[in-house]
Amino acid sequence: SQGEWEQLLTNCGVFLFYGMERFISHMLLNRLAAMNIPKCHLMILLDLVRSKQSYQRITNSDAHKSCLHIAVERPTETAMLLSLTGVRSIIANQWYTTSQENAERLEILFENLLTTGRTTGQTVHILRK
């Protein structure tokens, strides 16, 4: 529910979203824009995974949204909005991907951030290769 999303986001130091389609499509945009999330030092958005079912769901959902609302759900705009709410660092997919590719990214993130202790910048550089 929206309340659960808000509670999770306001009480975390690091937030990981690993899911289908666009992260923002799972939340009410006006509520997110009004949030204050200064405790969240890092948000990892491994979204933009597309399946036939998720594409159908998002298409049906988008039919009820304005063009401006849909534009705000794009990756760059999502990062800007989250930054304005107080999130300090954001790692996010820029393009649509497969679940397999996202699983590989998650493994690389965990290995480099948690196991070897690399910084987020170093880890993102490794992901780009």
In short:
The chain is an alpha/beta fold and 129 residues long.
How is the secondary structure organized here?
Blueprint: H1 2-10, E1 14-20, H2 29-33, E2 42-49, H3 52-62, H4 67-72, H5 75-85, E3 90-92, H6 99-115, H7 120-128
Parallel strand pairs: 1-2, 2-3
Describe this structure in words.
The chain has seven helices and three strands, in the order H-E-H-E-H-H-H-E-H-H. The protein is an alpha/beta fold and 129 residues long. It has one domain. It has a three-stranded parallel sheet, with helices on both faces. Helix 2 links the parallel strand 1 and strand 2. The longest helix is centred in the last third of the chain and has 17 residues. The N and C termini lie far apart (37 Å). The model has no long low-confidence stretch (mean pLDDT 92).
Q: Return the average pLDDT rounded to an integer.
A: 92
Number of strands: 3
Low-confidence stretches: none
Distance between the termini: 37 Å
Q: If strands are numbered along the chain, what order do they take across the biggest sheet?
A: 1-2-3
Biggest beta-sheet profile? 3 strands, parallel
Helices and strands: which structural class? alpha/beta
Q: What is the global morphology?
A: globular
Helix content: 40-55%
Provide the domain count.
Answer: 1
How much of the polypeptide forms β-strand, as a percent range? 5-15%
Helix count equals 7
Helix-strand pattern, N to C?
HEHEHHHEHH
Protein name: CFA46 protein
